[in-house]
Design brief:
122 residues, alpha+beta, Nuclear Transport Factor 2, Chain: A, 3 helices, 4 strands, elongated
């Protein structure tokens, strides 16, 4: 007759103290895919140019993207997204954190400031 490994033998009464640990471990394993999905929304901790543009457009509704470029200042990387609204001479510069996707600040750019920014070509 074949012998079963010990893991297949009936549990002893004092072995039930492992049940809460197994329950917690199972809950963590089940929750991990949901957490991973949230993290992959912003691809591996990096906001793409397209994502930064969408974040800026959500902030400046009714605007159109002029340019978007990745910049570094004071050791931080961010997307500098320029959004123009139809009928307005001014544009908005929306700075989006390149890691978290959080809007860092929004500044109004006057026409003379915009002259140095090339128009977006698609």
């Amino acid at each position: 007759m074949a012998k079963f490994p010990e893991i297949f033998l009936p549990m002893k009464t004092n072995d039930f103290r492992l049940v809460p640990i197994l329950i917690v471990a199972s809950a963590v394993m089940i929750a991990m895919p949901a957490a991973a999905t949230d993290k992959t929304r912003i691809k591996h901790g990096r906001v793409t140019k397209r994502q930064a543009e969408q974040i800026a457009l959500a902030k400046i509704q009714g605007g159109r993207i002029r340019t978007a470029e990745l910049q570094t200042a004071n050791g931080s990387r961010f997307w500098s997204v320029y959004v123009a609204k139809p009928g307005s001479k001014n544009a908005k510069e929306v700075r989006v954190d390149a890691v978290s996707g959080k809007i860092l600040n929004v500044q109004t750019e006057k026409p003379e400031d915009q002259a140095e920014e090339p128009a977006k070509t698609n």
